[in-house]
């Protein structure tokens, strides 16, 4: 598939009035959490993702100096755009600025949600292969009352059908741009972009959001954000290892590191037999004490037959994410005489990074021969060994 251009718009042009009730002068998106301004964290979360083509911040006209003081210098961070008087108007300004480039996809993110998990962002992008829009949501956990006056209950809603909307909200650029343009001509105000897409008749998917991806809205939200970023949550580093072997059989190429490499053999296995991704998946699962790949994807289960091993890797990444952790680095060594691996290493790092939503600098792929010794030396199969280092909330 053709690589997609994915632009990100971060709306940061609000006044943050509800958050400034504690007397703070700085608008919420420029206040620090864990020693770093909220907006800087949000921007960095997207710049860290290798599949993001560009990031555009939409800022308030009065905040140009504050924005400049963030000190960003990155060729994928485009010049900031001045926003409008509502979130909807600010998003439209961002879309207009991107129109000349016409990216394939656009992700629209609130600056006020500085915790943007790579896994969630990746899930939104992936859903756009099947839907015209996608957003992360969380099931509503409280019982929801409807009231006409805020004093007396008029009705109780069926919460089974209710979900809270988060960002980033992703769309195909042309479709959301024209929907936003049309929406700007009517009197109704929309509180999120997914609602504009729904109004325009687009099909919008929901993917699992993250509790920590809440919107900093009120003063007390800073304490919560500080607990996430400020080190109040004690983290510890865990290490896992993975090892896998697959034998050769007649074929036309091997899947290694998520890349198909032409060869006069293929690797035999229940899935696509990608020995490198299997070792990496086991290393991640090992680091978080979640068993091994066979526990999650039993070979006896026919649904995994011929499956792309990126599915297994993504699952392991998702478990890390759900536990509030993050992958620090991965290292895999592939042992074989042939095919030659080195030229494919950059593509493998891209695929692994995209599957896990982590930057390629966190991923090492190495290859060696076994000097014609043993079964790899006799070219009977390929071995892969991996290690994963993962930062997780302390369990004690
Ligand atoms: N005219 C506006 C209003 C909001 N936003 C952005 O939209 C996001 C979600 O809005 P919200 O949290 O409601 O922010 P504010 O409008 O700043 O908050 P408040 O209503 O308390 O003033 C924020 O990142 C905010 O900066 C924006 O870009 N332009
Ligand atoms: C986009 C949003 O964050 C999704 O929950 C929300 O709709 C923004 O609303 P607000 O009115 O700007 O607070």
Give the number of domains.
2
Give the distance, in angstroms, between the N- and C-terminal Cα atoms.
45 Å
Query: β content, as a range?
Result: 25-35%
SS field, number of helical segments: 12
Mean pLDDT: 94
What ligand molecules are bound, each kind once?
A: cytidine-5'-triphosphate, the ligand C[C@](O)(CO)[C@H](O)COP(=O)(O)O
CATH class of the largest domain: Alpha Beta
CATH superfamily of the largest domain: Spore Coat Polysaccharide Biosynthesis Protein SpsA, Chain A
The gross shape turns out to be elongated
Q: What CATH architecture label of the largest domain applies?
A: Alpha-Beta Complex
The count of strands amounts to: 19
- Uncertain segments: none
Major sheet: 8 strands, mixed
Features:
396 residues, isoprene biosynthesis, elongated, Spore Coat Polysaccharide Biosynthesis Protein SpsA, Chain A, 2 domains, binds cytidine-5'-triphosphate, IspD, single chain, 8-stranded mixed sheet, alpha/beta, 60s Ribosomal Protein L30, Chain: A
What would a concise description of this structure say?
The protein is 28% helix and 27% strand. By secondary structure, the chain is an alpha/beta fold. The protein has two domains: 6-229, Spore Coat Polysaccharide Biosynthesis Protein SpsA, Chain A, CATH 3.90.550; 235-393, 60s Ribosomal Protein L30, Chain: A (2-Layer Sandwich), CATH 3.30.1330.
């Amino acid at each position: 598939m053709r690589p997609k251009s994915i632009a990100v718009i971060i709306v940061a042009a609000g006044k943050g009035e509800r958050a400034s009730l504690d007397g703070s002068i700085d608008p919420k998106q420029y206040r620090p959490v864990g020693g770093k301004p909220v907006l800087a964290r949000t921007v960095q979360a997207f710049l860290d993702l290798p599949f993001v083509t560009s990031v555009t911040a939409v800022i308030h006209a009065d905040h140009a100096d504050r924005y400049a003081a963030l000190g960003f210098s990155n060729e994928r961070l485009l010049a900031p755009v001045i926003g409008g008087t509502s979130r909807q108007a600010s998003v439209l300004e961002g879309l207009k600025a991107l129109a000349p480039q016409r990216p394939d996809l656009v992700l629209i993110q609130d600056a006020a949600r500085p915790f943007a998990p790579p896994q969630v962002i990746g899930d939104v992008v992936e859903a756009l292969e099947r839907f015209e829009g996608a957003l992360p949501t969380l099931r509503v956990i409280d019982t929801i009352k409807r009231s006409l006056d805020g004093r007396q209950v008029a009705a109780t809603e069926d919460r089974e059908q209710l979900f809270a909307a988060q960002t980033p909200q992703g769309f195909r650029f042309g479709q959301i741009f024209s929907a936003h343009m049309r929406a700007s001509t009517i009197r109704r105000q929309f509180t999120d972009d997914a609602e504009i897409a729904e109004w325009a008749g687009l099909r919008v998917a929901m993917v699992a959001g993250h509790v920590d991806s809440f919107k900093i809205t009120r003063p007390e939200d800073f304490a919560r954000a500080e607990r996430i970023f400020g080190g109040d949550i004690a983290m510890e580093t865990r290490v896992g290892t993975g090892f896998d072997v697959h034998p050769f059989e007649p074929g036309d190429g091997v899947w290694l590191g998520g890349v198909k490499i032409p060869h006069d053999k293929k690797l035999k296995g229940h899935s696509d037999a990608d020995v490198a991704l299997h070792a990496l998946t086991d290393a991640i699962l090992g680091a978080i004490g979640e068993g091994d790949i066979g526990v999650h994807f039993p070979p006896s289960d026919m649904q995994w037959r011929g499956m792309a091993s990126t599915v297994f890797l993504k699952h392991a990444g998702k478990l890390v994410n759900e536990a509030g952790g993050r992958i620090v680095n991965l290292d895999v060594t592939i042992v074989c005489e042939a095919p030659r691996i080195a030229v494919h290493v950059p593509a493998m790092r891209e695929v692994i990074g995209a599957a896990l939503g982590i930057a390629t600098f966190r991923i090492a792929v190495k290859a060696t021969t076994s000097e014609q010794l043993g079964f790899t030396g006799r070219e009977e199969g390929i071995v892969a060994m991996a290690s994963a280092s993962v930062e997780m909330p302390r369990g004690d």
